[in-house]
UniProtKB/TrEMBL annotation:
It comes from Trifolium subterraneum. It comes from the Eukaryota. SUPFAM superfamilies: UDP-Glycosyltransferase/glycogen phosphorylase. InterPro entries: UDP_glucos_trans (IPR002213), UDP_glycos_trans_CS (IPR035595). Keywords: Glycosyltransferase, Transferase. GO terms for molecular function: UDP-glucosyltransferase activity. This is Uncharacterized protein. Pfam families: UDPGT. PANTHER family: GLYCOSYLTRANSFERASE (PTHR48047). The keyword Cytoplasm does not apply. Belongs to the UDP-glycosyltransferase family.
Length: 202
């Protein structure tokens, strides 16, 4: 999980954004983080502006809801694919592995993402001293949830990619066709192995 200073920055950025939000947070033990986040949860629940989910969340169900306007992601491939399929732009927050490369794809190539400003590559579950400030997080959220031309164009691209993704998995679509070809290749390979084995026995 994020260290305490980063949790504080995220909480303030979400609250200050003025947008409704869902924050999926890992279950935490009692302590400084727990007290802060529970007080934050109580405050945003009373204002009816935010909702915290502790632990696992039904991500696909959330992403496909009409009320959701954008996603903050660590740029893991599953979340990227699910967000693209749902037609949502993304605020990118990579941490480790291939996530920084995925961020460049979303921000520079597909142009459906806005970077929050994470610079430091992490080891798994280890965090350095780099803290993304609430102002930078808020700026990314503002770009994604605004009404300016840049935001609208990003949404149009995300919707177009969603349409292409859905079309690809339909009967006769590119993904459907390639999967069928793969299965046929595997069947042919297996039949060839069986044939060679039988010829060897004969």
């Amino acid at each position: 999980k994020f260290p305490s200073p980063q949790l504080v920055e995220i909480a303030h950025a979400l609250e200050d954004s003025g947008n409704d939000f869902i924050w999926v947070a890992r279950k935490i033990e009692d302590g400084e983080d727990g007290v802060f986040l529970r007080e934050f949860e109580k405050r945003v629940k009373e204002s009816n502006k935010g909702y915290l989910i502790w632990g696992w969340a039904p991500q696909l169900l959330i992403l496909e809801h009409a009320a959701v306007g954008a996603v903050v992601t660590h740029c893991g491939w599953n979340t990227i694919m699910e967000s693209v399929n749902a037609g949502l732009p993304l605020a990118t927050w990579p941490l480790f592995a291939e996530q920084f490369y995925n961020e460049r794809l979303l921000v520079d190539v597909l142009k459906i993402g806005v970077a929050v400003g994470a610079k430091e590559w992490m080891n798994w579950n280890e965090f350095g001293d780099d803290v993304v400030k609430r102002e930078d997080i808020g700026k990314a959220i503002g770009l994604l949830m605004g009404s300016g031309e840049e935001c609208l164009e990003m949404r149009r691209r995300a919707k177009a990619l969603s349409g292409a993704a859905k079309k690809a998995i339909e009967f006769g679509g590119s993904s459907h066709t390639k999967l069928k070809e793969l299965l046929e290749d595997l069947k042919s390979f297996k039949l060839e192995k069986v044939k060679n084995r039988l010829e060897g026995v004969a």
